[in-house]
């Protein structure tokens, strides 16, 4: 901890305020995770990562910088990590999921902005997150209006680069996105002084795909009748995927999956018989936002799948692994990063609705909870189609809106508890 303090001071952080966050995290983590029965032993690695989330990984990033490397932070799964890795830099996620950072965001943004955006800016402006101090470049995107405008504010304090994401998926849009990826490659080459080559891009595609494959393997266990790992633990692992070293992360997930294979053979479930299977869909749940999983899984439910960017959307589709020309590999990246992500920023967005129905069936969900972060208009409006399609498919659904505070926790417990009871 003393070493961490020194590092945080050198990063120019507000260490005193940051200590308050460090004090609160172990209690929250203990309540949500360590209190669970029958957790797999190989969750130890992920526990350790979270226990020292502002220590271990930041010090690795700083070490990389001391050796001349760069660190690039992003806020959206549309931004291809492969480009960063191919340029010899380290990619890290920056989306923030704690109420702790929201008031800082409200100093520079309207209150009626989604908590994810407010927390992200608060973490930077209040100097209370090491990742937001370390990054050499912050990569924003033009997904929702809130983010677009927030990047302008953030650029007053941080070196920003913006990728212009198309809002439709026509042929022209794919071509435009390919150009954006090419420009991003140039930007990363300038930043790092390294050239992105056919070999380095292909290696990076394999590295990120290996991470996705490990997460796919993990998610497959959630389709079983006897589920060997809780939804909370899978959420935690997915959240860590945005920060950890991709190769080590994939290795640790696969080691965990080996343990789960044995549980599968033994028909071992971490849930009691009769637990209702819930699919979550909607806005992302960034670390340490564990509120909904905790409520659902202590109210007779099991979260079996998240149709979210912090869920299946992050890992389900792979980038084509062929080693082709640069042009072709960039086209393959564009296909994956535009065609396979069904964010509500797109219009129309029917593939997301189709995905929800498909996933509800694949994961044998008894019901769906459509989650909206307060002030996220695009997911809120799309909820109309989500709920309509689920009603047509005969799958029970409730829509809920929440934020990062605990103020609505009791009310959510009542509503979610009643929904799960209704599924019985
Ligand atoms: S919800 Fe949309 S804007 Fe947010 S991370 Fe996902 S793709 Fe990006
Ligand atoms: S949750 Fe909605 S409003 Fe918030 S950043 Fe994502 S898309 Fe934008």
TrEMBL record:
Family classification: Belongs to the FldB/FldC dehydratase alpha/beta subunit family.
EC number: 4.2.1.-
Pfam family, one: HGD-D
UniProt protein name: 2-hydroxyglutaryl-CoA dehydratase, D-component
Gene Ontology MF terms in the entry: hydro-lyase activity; iron-sulfur cluster binding
Cofactors that this protein relies on: [4Fe-4S] cluster
Record-annotated membrane-spanning stretches: none
